[in-house]
């Protein structure tokens, strides 16, 4: 299926990275412990989450809902949007077109 987008890919990934950094326990997707995560510098955390954002973006093309730490990332193919939620609260809506 794939995720359809018309915006610049890098801009989408940067926005998704910012959103994923706000999700509690997002590092669990990377199979890291909280201690491992806390030992990283902010720039290292961002780089890890940036790499994860690529994986999440492409993963949404086959699975429209991905559980991520304490949150969830959902792709709505009808509206071409990615919704990022931390717990039960939507924290970001990323428009792809």
Mean pLDDT: 95
> Main β-sheet, in a few words?
4 strands, antiparallel
Q: Count of helical segments?
A: 3
Low-pLDDT ranges = none
| Category by helix and strand content | alpha+beta
Adjacency order of strands in the biggest sheet: 1-2-3-4
Percent in helix = 25-40%
Protein described:
This protein has 97 residues and is an alpha+beta fold. It is 38% helix and 24% strand. The chain has helices at residues 9-21, 34-39, 42-59; strands at 65-68, 71-76, 81-86, 89-95. The protein has a four-stranded antiparallel beta sheet, covered by helices on one side. Helix 1 crosses helix 3 (42-59). It is globular. The relative contact order is 0.24. The mean pLDDT is 95.
In short:
By secondary structure, this protein is α+β, with helices and mostly antiparallel strands.
